[in-house]
Specification:
heterodimer; A: alpha/beta; Rossmann fold; six-stranded mixed sheet; 7 strands; about 35% helix; globular; B: alpha+beta; Phosphorylase Kinase, domain 1; Transferase(Phosphotransferase), domain 1; Tumour Suppressor Smad4; 3 domains; six-stranded antiparallel β-barrel; about 25% helix
Chain lengths: ~230, ~450
């Protein structure tokens, strides 16, 4: 029997990717302990993200980070394998241009910036305030992007001044609400949750009919732990 | 789960076992999952693992406590299951948990076979097949007792890289076959009818998940991921339901090539497939063609066990490129076919083998033949040896098979002369020498390699 010989040396199986985009509020109101806590939370979340990625061995977990204040700039512009991700501290100052941040994300939610085989991208939006630019325009652009509707959207509200209604509109799911972080320990836990549980939801055994219901149930469990200490 | 929820148990938390009324305390967190967390605990001086559930799990999974109690009462099918030993309660807590043996740290997770290099463990083919064999042996014991596991996936079975032995964790979903299952399963491991939500897990869906796991262990790849999966840009739930539920097609379906391998993409998977014995390929084909649609036609463990055991014996590596593969047998297994390497295409020197019935045992230094090879009534067990390949003590380059049984072997040489090999003596491995082991008769075939065996991949 003739066998077609494989070219094992030159071919490597390309792995499916899961793209996580973190959009972090660095406006003036984040100055001081809040931005320090956010930086700490990100450093604490990276090992957890690596562990979550290891639980899903067929997929490469790629991370980008966007900061928004007066305008939006990529902090980690290239999709970076979570194993290679090193955290550089963010600084706070300026307004809350959340709409611009959503436009910047909309620009990469397409096959050109997310090439090859992908899982639905995960977008994590973290904010402590109200958008000072056109949120609706940003949201419209985001949902119009080729991969926008299919992205899994998660939001973390920092402190009592965060605009919960805006974050709910960002998530746009009846059962799945923004996570609230009222102190530094909460923030560490919420960031860990938001960066790992959506990743795990694609590889975990489940009792629920769809991943968002699992997320909603788990988020509910998180809420009970929220501390009453307000910043 | 985040592993940082409010119900995390602090070190030193006192606990009590429900049936044994033994006292212990929590030592440290080992890991967290969707239903709860696992801790190392000490109970009267002995260390165990404690699975502690989230407060709300008992209300979501209403049969959990009864299932665990029943499993505890019946005991583990084999010692490879890290089975619940006793329920545990903690004063002041609404939740509960169970203790089980701690997992030995020398075992690796199945995910390590699939992980991105350099984290990936590259296990030789014979060892991968040994892991599959052990899984088949142990799930046979579970299913034969009327239980189903419900959620076979690469997260709950661990393997030992040296011995190929396994450990089966997460036994809290185990239930009597036919009872309403507590989980659907894990994505890409669920049987198509479960993906379509037409049925709940059962022994029949376990058989499908187990076949998927075997395919993953051997190929580091999923059996339904071919051309169609490769063309899905965003794998959302509707694409998944189509590929693994509504319209599943095996990558090596002989009748339907619509999801076949893509040249230049799946070459490594094709090479691995070609390296398997025809019997194993046939079992995979049955599992992922007729077995996709007819749960009653799925391959049962004894058939996997027999054919994995045969393949463990037969693996060789190409002397040119080192690729592990099973040599092809001739008609009725009476000889080995001249063959070319499935990876580099160069002719392979045939290894010296012992042919016994349909078993082909590749011979190499230190390789043993097991009792089950020479006695068809003995269970498959690679640890009990009947003979071992050894070099002549003074005549280097001369190899023989030492009789480690208590009975003499009757040997007929190629010229027709007969000799007896008493226990403790060795017979030289020479072409066309026949050995009567008592219950079965074997024959050495040394092909073109004279009588010098090569190392077999271990």
């Amino acid at each position: 029997m003739a066998i077609d010989l494989p070219n094992l040396g030159q071919t490597a199986l390309v792995r499916r990717q899961l793209q996580v985009v973190l959009a972090l509020d660095c406006s003036g109101s984040m100055t001081g302990d809040k931005i320090a806590s956010l930086n700490y939370a990100m450093r604490a979340a990276i090992p957890e993200m690596r562990a979550a990625a290891a639980d899903n061995p067929e997929t490469d977990l790629m991370v980008r980070v966007l900061r928004f204040a007066s305008g939006a700039q990529w902090h980690v512009p290239d999709p970076t394998l979570v194993d290679d991700l090193e955290w550089t501290d963010l600084a706070a100052g300026g307004e809350t241009h959340m709409g611009e941040a959503l436009c910047a994300i909309a620009d990469i939610l397409n096959p050109e910036y997310m090439p090859g085989r992908q899982l639905p991208p995960v977008i994590v939006l973290v904010s402590d305030g109200q958008p000072s630019d056109d949120f609706d325009m940003g949201m419209k652009r985001l949902l119009a992007a080729p991969y926008g509707q299919r992205a899994l959207r998660v939001a973390v509200a920092i402190g009592g001044d965060a605009d919960i209604e805006i974050l709910e509109r960002f998530i746009a799911h009846p059962d799945f609400k923004p996570l609230r972080a009222n102190n530094a320990q909460d923030l560490v836990n919420r960031i860990k949750w938001a960066t790992t549980v959506p990743v795990k939801s694609v590889s975990q055994s489940t009792n629920a009919p769809d991943p968002l219901t699992v997320l909603a149930r788990d988020a509910e469990r998180q809420k009970k732990t929220a501390s009453d200490v307000i910043w | 789960m985040s592993g940082t929820t409010n119900d995390e148990l602090p070190r030193g938390t006192p606990l009590m076992t429900v049936h044994g009324r033994r006292r212990g305390h929590v030592e440290n967190l080992l890991g967290a999952g969707g239903q709860g967390a696992v801790y190392a605990v000490a109970i009267e001086g002995t260390r165990f693992a404690l699975k502690w559930y989230h407060d709300d799990i008992a209300s979501i999974d209403r049969t959990l406590r009864a299932r665990l109690s029943r499993a505890i009462g019946i005991g583990p099918p084999t010692d490879r299951f890290l089975w619940p030993i006793d329920l545990v309660e903690i004063a002041g807590s609404k939740s509960f948990g169970y203790v089980m043996p701690l997992r030995d740290g020398d075992y690796n997770g199945m995910r390590d076979l699939i992980a991105r290099p350099p984290k990936r463990i590259d296990l030789p083919l014979s060892k991968r097949v040994m892991v599959c064999l052990r899984i088949a042996q142990n799930f046979l014991e579970l299913h034969a007792r009327g239980f189903c596991y419900q959620d076979i996936n690469f997260g709950n079975i661990f393997f030992h890289t040296q011995s190929g032995d396994i450990l089966i964790c997460d036994n809290d979903n185990v239930d009597i076959d036919g009872m309403d299952a507590a989980v659907f399963g894990t994505r890409k491991f669920m049987a198509p009818e479960v993906v379509r939500r037409e049925t709940l897990p059962s022994t029949k869906t376990d058989l499908f998940s187990m076949a998927v796991l075997f395919f993953y262990i051997i190929h580091s790849w999923h059996p339904l991921d071919g051309r169609r999966e490769n063309e899905v840009q965003i794998m959302d739930s509707s694409a998944e339901t189509s590929l693994y539920g509504r319209n599943p097609v095996f990558i090596f379906d002989p009748q339907d090539q619509s999801n076949g391998p893509v040249p230049g993409v799946h070459d490594a998977i094709v090479a691995r497939w070609n390296s398997l014995t025809p019997a194993i390929r046939s079992l995979f084909t049955r599992s992922f063609t007729v077995g996709l649609r007819q749960p009653g036609e799925r391959v049962l463990e004894p058939e996997w066990r027999t054919n994995f055991a045969r393949m463990v014996d037969g693996c060789v590596s190409c002397q040119h490129c080192g690729y592990d593969q099973a040599p092809r047998q001739g008609v009725k297994g009476q000889t080995l076919m001249p063959t070319v390497c499935v990876a580099c295409g160069r002719p392979m020197a045939l290894p010296p083998v012992l042919l016994i019935g349909r078993d082909t045992i590749t011979l190499g230094p230190g390789i043993g033949i097991a009792i089950h090879h020479i006695d068809p009534d003995r269970p498959v067990d690679f640890t009990t040896m009947a003979g071992i390949v050894e070099e002549h003590p003074t005549n280097k380059g001369v190899w023989g098979l030492r009789n480690m049984t208590r009975n003499a072997w009757k040997v007929t040489l190629s010229d027709g002369s007969a000799v007896t090999v008493d226990p403790g003596r060795a017979v030289r491995i020479m072409d066309e020498t026949t050995v009567d082991f008592g219950r079965r008769v074997g024959r050495f075939v040394t092909g073109d390699t004279a009588s010098v065996p090569r190392e077999r991949p271990r």
